[in-house]
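Task card 7
Instruction: Convert sequence to structure tokens.
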Amino acid sequence: MLLSALACAVLSQVGSGSAAVLLLLVGFGFCGAMSTIAVTTVAEVVPARRRGGALGLMNAVVTTGGLIAPVLTGYLVDTQGREGYQHAVLLAAVLLLLGGTAAVTLIDPARDARRLAA
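Output:
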């Protein structure tokens, strides 16, 4: 997620061309792969009796983001034109940075598994 954040931050400042395509692939490709890692992590850490609820809650949060992002991006583009795309990608970079930092500092699978098993 942190690498995706960096790629999106740089992408928001790059025009077009092969560098922009590469940054787009890294920025949004790597963070997309996190969804499979997140599902696997939740399934491993959460006790079986709570697994369905935890996965459902995670899916609800992800789906809500999927509803908000296009609306917000459309608003930014409608009100700012081409710069709206830059701001949308920069906002994605900020959110990825916050999420990546939170993941690095807050997630401890062994501790979380012990706490949830209790």
